[in-house]
Q: What sequence folds into this?
């Protein structure tokens, strides 16, 4: 369950940053992208997949969350 | 004559041959030929890994990153180098982080404070001594805004509880006391020290005045982070930002202070120069206070102009127009500098091996002078730094991560650059090899190099290094061609 920071980069893409590893990837697919439920399964640009407990509303970014590696 | 990717790969193979097989395999992952089309580095280069036993690395320790880089320049705190005297004394003032104020009265960044551990402190613990030192500092230096405890190796080894001392002493003296767990053995390089120091700023300083709203902010407030004012770098950057109508409310951490750091939350934009050492706190500022950060580059007129425009794009049209005016005012002066030095430097080939940011940041400044970067590498960069490097560097250029002293010398022997920019540990080796060298950590006792004013100094320094007449006198007079006739005359 790594701690990651989600943020929108200058190009408007959602980025995924693993604080401990200085590892930054863009999110290429998000299960629930809002409006309404936001989160769920996400796929990163390097092919790895994570699960984020969905929010009822899209949260304000940047935000540090805990995710599960799938 | 720059090399193409294949030639570079071949050079890497040849240099690696001398290593035992296992070492060679490991080191191969840290070396590559540049491909500017790459977006991601994690597939092609390994970074931020422990140096191998048996090879000489140029890296420093976590204490160096925390005390030397991030906390050291903060002028109004007293940084105690907690442990034996050497670490503090040998890292004192070497980076020339300039400050304003009266040394020992209201600024302390140029002094050395240490708990000077002796055998008995290691045996019986140093917590009592630390508490006493903090009380003494408060009596002697009442204008200090806080105290930090920068742990050296022994503190972690003997298990002293500096957090408890810090909490207790902070109450007693009524000022923040920050325990920084930056023991030198933590992590693989000074890079972890940056992170630890950023986290300590976040946890012990930043939020202390969150309920104090007496600061009157304007829509044009910005903060400069990741500028350590080496030789005055932050000042020569600051004037440009102010000239375009923005107000700099905080400098992190060159010539910076605790109150400035605490007012940073009022900034509208956070300008981040050294991404490697301060991205952590910048990300935190963005998450907690909603201050976006912008990476910029103030080396050389091309990059400066691009950065000024990028900064202005975050503000209204007046600021945008001002940015153009600033660029227009400085351009003729920059053109004059280039006209003077470019003919003397055109086509010179440079190899760089520095910290975690500069090899990619200074490329533009060299190119403005018509020079070419044929090799670049970092001591302690991470993969996100390499992601940002590929685009800046020419195709086929050699990239080396945490190069060993053997590799660096071997590459230099083969590539024969006209200039090497690296640290003090490399400087005299290359001088003895007869190659012009600039120490690019603290500008070889020169500077500033940031901003338009800095470029004038940069260009002059590169010229006086490369075109110094001493390089023609590397051979003893009696070994030179034509020496025999000389002898006969005598
Ligand atoms: S490694 Fe330890 S002993 Fe050496 S300078 Fe760093 S803190 Fe001091």
A:
């Amino acid at each position: 369950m790594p701690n990651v920071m989600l943020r929108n980069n200058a190009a408007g893409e959602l980025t995924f940053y693993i604080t401990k590893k200085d590892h930054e990837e863009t999110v290429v697919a998000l299960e629930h992208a809002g409006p309404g439920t936001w989160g769920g399964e996400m796929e990163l640009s390097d092919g790895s997949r994570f699960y984020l407990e969905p929010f009822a509303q899209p949260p304000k970014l940047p935000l540090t969350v805990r995710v599960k590696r799938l | 004559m720059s090399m193409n990717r294949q030639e570079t790969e071949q050079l890497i193979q040849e240099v690696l041959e001398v290593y035992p097989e296992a070492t060679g395999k490991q080191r191969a992952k840290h070396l590559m030929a540049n491909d500017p089309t790459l977006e991601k580095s994690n597939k092609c280069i390994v970074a931020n890994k422990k140096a191998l036993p048996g090879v000489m690395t140029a890296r420093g320790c976590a204490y160096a990153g925390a005390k030397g880089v991030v906390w050291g320049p903060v002028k109004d705190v007293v940084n105690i180098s907690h442990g034996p005297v050497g670490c503090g004394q040998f890292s004192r003032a070497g980076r020339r982080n300039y400050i304003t104020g009266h040394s020992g009265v209201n600024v302390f960044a140029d002094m050395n404070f240490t708990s000077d551990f002796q055998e008995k402190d290691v045996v019986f613990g140093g917590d009592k001594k630390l508490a006493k030192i903090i009380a003494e500092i408060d009596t002697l230096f009442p204008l200090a805004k806080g105290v930090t405890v920068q742990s050296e190796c022994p503190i972690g080894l003997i298990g002293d509880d500096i957090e408890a001392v810090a909490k207790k002493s902070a109450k007693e003296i009524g000022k923040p006391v920050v325990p920084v767990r930056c023991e030198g053995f933590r992590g693989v390089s000074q890079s972890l020290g940056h992170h630890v120091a950023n986290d300590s700023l976040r946890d012990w300083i930043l939020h202390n005045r969150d309920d104090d709203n007496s600061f009157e902010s304007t829509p044009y407030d910005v903060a400069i982070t990741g500028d350590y004012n080496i030789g005055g770098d932050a000042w020569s950057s600051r004037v440009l930002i102010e000239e375009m109508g923005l107000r700099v409310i905080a400098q992190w951490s060159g010539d910076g202070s605790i109150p400035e750091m605490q007012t940073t939350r009022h900034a509208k934009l956070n300008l981040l120069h050294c991404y490697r050492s301060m991205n952590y706190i910048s990300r935190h500022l963005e998450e907690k206070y909603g201050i976006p950060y912008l990476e910029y580059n103030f080396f050389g007129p091309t990059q400066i102009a691009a950065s000024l425009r990028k900064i202005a794009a975050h503000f209204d049209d007046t600021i945008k127009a001002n940015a153009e005016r600033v660029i227009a005012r400085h351009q003729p002066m920059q053109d004059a500098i280039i006209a003077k030095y470019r003919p003397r430097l055109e086509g010179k080939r440079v190899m760089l091996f520095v910290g975690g940011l500069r090899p990619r940041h200074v490329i533009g400044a060299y190119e403005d002078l018509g020079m070419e970067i044929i090799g670049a590498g970092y001591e302690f960069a991470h993969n996100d730094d390499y992601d940002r490097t590929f685009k800046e560097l020419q195709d086929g250029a050699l990239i080396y991560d945490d190069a060993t002293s053997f590799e660096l010398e071997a590459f230099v022997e083969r590539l024969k650059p006209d200039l090497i920019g690296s640290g003090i540990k490399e400087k005299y080796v290359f001088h003895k090899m007869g190659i012009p060298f600039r120490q690019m950590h603290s500008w070889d006792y020169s500077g500033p190099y940031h901003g338009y004013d800095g470029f004038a100094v940069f260009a002059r320094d590169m010229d006086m290094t490369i075109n110094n007449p001493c390089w023609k006198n590397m051979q003893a007079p009696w070994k030179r061609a034509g020496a025999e006739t000389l002898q006969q005359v005598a």
Remarks:
- Chain A has no helices and seven strands.
- Chain A has a mean pLDDT of 88.
- The pocket of iron/sulfur cluster is lined by residues B 61, 63, 87, 152-153, 184 (CB under 6 Å).
- The interface with chain B takes residues 5, 7, 17, 19, 22-24, 45-46, 62-64 of chain A (CB under 8 Å).
